[in-house]
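Marked as duplicate of an earlier ticket. Keeping the data here for the record.
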Amino acid sequence: MAQQQPLLNLIEDLTGDLGDPRILWQIGAIALCAALGFGLARVLKKRFGRQEAQGGVLGFGVESFGRVMAPLMVVGLLALARLVLLRYHFHVNWLDVAQPIFGSLVVIRFTFYLIRRVFARNGRTISPGMLAFEKVFQLLVWLAFVLYVTGMWVDVFDVMEGTKLPIGKYKVSIADILQASASVIVLLMLALWAGAALEEWLMKMQGGMHTNLRVVLSRTARAVLILVAVLMSLSLVGIDLTVLSVFGGALGVGLGLGLQKIASNYVSGFVILLDRSLTIGDMITVDKYSGRVTQINTRYTVLQSLDGMESIVPNEMLVSGAVQNSSLTNSRVNLSTKVSVAYDTDVDFVIRLLGEAAQTVERVLKEPAPSVNLTAFGADGLDLTVNFWIDDPENGRGGVTSDVNRAIWRALKENNISVPFPQREMRILGPVPAPLAPQESTTVPSE
C-alpha cells in the first residue's frame, strides 16, 4: 500500500485532485476495478461452486473464500491500476484511499466467515454474543482504517510500543501483547477452520471410504492442526517450548486423577470409530436409550429416537456395556403379532390366510416369508403368532405392526372368521328371588 501521510496533506491532495481533469482516470480505475472484481468473483462462484456439492476440491475452495473473493480481487486490481497510473505520471491519491477500504472489507468478511464456520452450529445459528463481537470487531477494523489513512497509526503504535506493563519480573509493551494475542487467535482460528473444512470435505467426498474412517481422519487432522497452531503461536510469542514438559506432566497427573472419565470417553470414541462397531445410521439400544446414531463424536454419541428426542450417550457406555445393534451385519429384524380364532375354525386354512395377509404389507419382506404358528390352546380360542421380517428398523416398528394387524383383521372379516372374546357364565344357586313390585307414583295436586 501507499506510504502514510499526515491528515492535512491527504485532504489537500484529495481536494486538489478534484480540480484536476485527470481525476476521471482515478475514478474510472476505481469503478472498473470494482466492477471487474465483483464480476469475476460471481463468475467463479457460479462456475466452480457446483463442484462443492459433488466434493470437488476447486469448488470447495471457491465456496470457502467466496465471501472475500470479490473485495480481494478489487484490492489486487487497484494495486495494478495504481502502478499503471504512476507509470504515466497520474495522481493516485484516491486509489490510495480505496485500497484500504476494500482491504478492510476483506478482513471483516473473512473474520466473520471464520467465526461463523467454527463457532456457529451449521454456520447458521448465531448467538447474541457472537453478533456483538462481530459489531465490535467491525468497529475496530474501521477505526484502524481511519488511523492508517490519516497517518496517525504510526503515532498510536509508538505510544503502545513505549508503554510497558510489568508481568512478573519482565516488562512487556502493549504492542507486543497485542501482537502475541493476535497471532495466537489467528493461528487457532485458522486451525479450527481448516479442521471443520476438512471434515466437511471428507463427509461429502464420493468414494468407498467408510464413514467411520472419515470421522477418524477428520478428528485426528483437527487435533494435529490445533497442536501445530498452538506450538507455532507459542514460538511466535517467544515462549520456550521446553516448559511444555512440565505442563505435560501436570496434565498426565490430572488425567490420572480427575479427568479419567473424560479421557476414557475420548479413547472410547476412537475405539468405536476404528473397530466400526457402530456406524452413523445404525439403530441401537444401550441401557435405556434407543434410537438411530446421528453423530459419533470423540466424547459422546448422539442417538435420535423415533419421536425426535435426541440422547447424548457417553462413549464409555458404548464400549464397556452391552449394545443392541439392529443393523450391525444385517439390518433385518423379526417382529411378531398374536391373534386368536374360534375353536371351530379350520386351522390350516387360517394359517395360510394370515401368512398371505402379512405379505400384503409393503414393508414386510417376501423372503424370508412370514410364518404363522399355533402357539397355545387358549381359554377362549386358538392362539396363533404371526412372525414377519423387515429390513428398515430405522423407520420404526409400531407402524408396520399396525399395518399387519389391519391386514389380518380385513382377511378374517372377509372370510367370516370370528375372533373370540372372553365369555363367562353366571349361575344363581337357590330359588330365584321374586321381582320387586314397581313403586306407585303419587301425584301432588298443584295449587
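See parent ticket for discussion. Residues 333-414 form a domain with the Alpha-Beta Plaits fold (CATH 3.30.70.100).
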